[in-house]
From TrEMBL:
<keyword id="KW-0464">Manganese</keyword>
<keyword id="KW-0963">Cytoplasm</keyword>
<comment type="function">
    <text>Endonuclease that specifically degrades the RNA of RNA-DNA hybrids.</text>
</comment>
<dbReference type="InterPro" id="IPR022898">
    <property type="entry name" value="RNase_HII"/>
</dbReference>
<feature type="binding site">
    <location>
        <position position="107"/>
    </location>
    <ligand>
        <name>a divalent metal cation</name>
    </ligand>
</feature>
<comment type="similarity">
    <text>Belongs to the RNase HII family.</text>
</comment>
<dbReference type="GO" id="GO:0004523">
    <property type="term" value="F:RNA-DNA hybrid ribonuclease activity"/>
</dbReference>
<keyword id="KW-0378">Hydrolase</keyword>
<keyword id="KW-0479">Metal-binding</keyword>
<feature type="domain" description="RNase H type-2">
    <location>
        <begin position="9"/>
        <end position="198"/>
    </location>
</feature>
<dbReference type="InterPro" id="IPR001352">
    <property type="entry name" value="RNase_HII/HIII"/>
</dbReference>
<feature type="binding site">
    <location>
        <position position="16"/>
    </location>
    <ligand>
        <name>a divalent metal cation</name>
    </ligand>
</feature>
<feature type="binding site">
    <location>
        <position position="15"/>
    </location>
    <ligand>
        <name>a divalent metal cation</name>
    </ligand>
</feature>
<dbReference type="Pfam" id="PF01351">
    <property type="entry name" value="RNase_HII"/>
</dbReference>
<keyword id="KW-0540">Nuclease</keyword>
<protein>
    <recommendedName>
        <fullName>Ribonuclease HII</fullName>
        <ecNumber>3.1.26.4</ecNumber>
    </recommendedName>
</protein>
<dbReference type="InterPro" id="IPR036397">
    <property type="entry name" value="RNaseH_sf"/>
</dbReference>
Length: 198
């Protein structure tokens, strides 16, 4: 059962999507839900079908006190590493919010402190707290939308389906066609045993 507010009114939940992908951005969302907000479907985005996530997105956008979504793209990921890029995406999403949160709930066990606002890291928080679950839905749906858009440019990688994750199909396409401008060059794109026979 997802909980409502954790400690304070106007607390923000934040979460990211796309951390383990080979291509595309890491995307974070931050959201403040109104006091007393309830939704029977809302849960960790990974527990919901794509259809349910897409259905929840406009409800969350309409009902939220405020929200923001931010992409950190592959070049920056390669420059600062994926962990720092995840923190940066969450910080930028918080920066862009119309209202300053009183407290920040973060999904996971690590976070770079945000200036002047206390936070708490909650492991599997997207399955425990509504604001984190809501942030996970927004991060996932906005990132999926972006991956579907760049899929049109490079359909051979099938990002519309795999969203840039390291599926067998995605890795086979990398072997055949090489890397694109959207791939994260700092990631090990192919397992070491997949060497080319020359």
């Amino acid at each position: 059962m997802l909980k409502d507010l954790y400690k304070y009114p106007n607390e923000a939940g934040t979460d990211e999507a796309g951390r383990g992908c080979l291509a595309g951005p890491v995307t974070a969302a931050a959201i403040i839900l109104p006091e007393g907000f309830t939704n029977g479907i809302l849960n960790d985005s990974k527990q919901l079908s794509e259809l349910k996530r897409e259905g929840l997105r406009p409800i969350l956008e309409k009902e939220a006190v405020c929200f923001s979504v931010c992409h950190v793209f592959q070049d920056e990921i390669d420059e600062i590493n994926i962990l720092n890029a995840s923190f940066l995406a969450m910080h930028r999403a918080l920066d862009a919010m119309e209202k300053v949160p009183s407290f920040i709930l973060v999904d996971g066990n690590r976070f770079k402190p945000y200036p002047s606002i206390a936070h708490e890291c909650i492991i599997k928080g997207d399955g425990k707290y509504m604001s984190i679950a809501a942030a996970s839905i927004l991060a996932k749906t906005y990132r999926d939308e972006y991956m579907a858009k760049i899929h049109e440019e490079f359909p051979m990688y099938n990002w519309k389906k795999n969203k840039g994750y390291p599926t067998k199909e995605h890795r086979e396409a990398i072997k055949e066609f090489g890397l694109t401008k959207y791939h994260r060059k700092s990631f090990r794109q192919l397992p070491e045993q997949l060497t080319l026979d020359i």
